[in-house]
Design a protein that fits this description.
- By secondary structure, the chain is an alpha+beta fold.
- It contains two helices and five strands.
- It has a five-stranded antiparallel beta sheet, covered by helices on one side.
- A hairpin with a 3-residue loop joins strand 1 and strand 2.
- Bound molecules: adenosine monophosphate and zinc ion.
- Zinc ion (ZN) binds next to helix 1.
Length: about 110
Amino acid sequence: MSDCLFCKILAGEIPSDKVYEDDKVYVFKDIYPKADVHLLMIPREHVDSLNELDESHDALMAHMMRLLPKLAKEQGLDTGYRTIINTGPGGGQEVFHLHIHLMGGDHLPGFR
Ligand code: AMP
Ligand code: ZN
């Protein structure tokens, strides 16, 4: 996926503000934060969106879900946080590499 922005971030071709990484995922700060804490969690494997997931991704997705509360705690989000996955143009997805928004703190946006 040479034209994928987040694959380029994973390859180090585009700079990013890393928060966490392991063999399956990479987490970095959203460049246009919409809350005091606004992170993006992406799988190292390129997947366009939720729509392209199959059984082979089950362990990966479970790993991502279970990482979220740990990251939220590290970010000091003791009272809670919001997770968002936009899917497809109609869902507001702009970057077609699956990602989970992790947001919290002040200035948490509402749904639109
Ligand atoms: P979505 O609309 O769900 O596809 O979200 C894409 C997110 O990627 C937006 O919140 C953007 O602010 C963010 N974004 C775009 N380019 C970059 C970048 N180079 N580094 C970090 N975040 C980015
Ligand atoms: Zn990608």
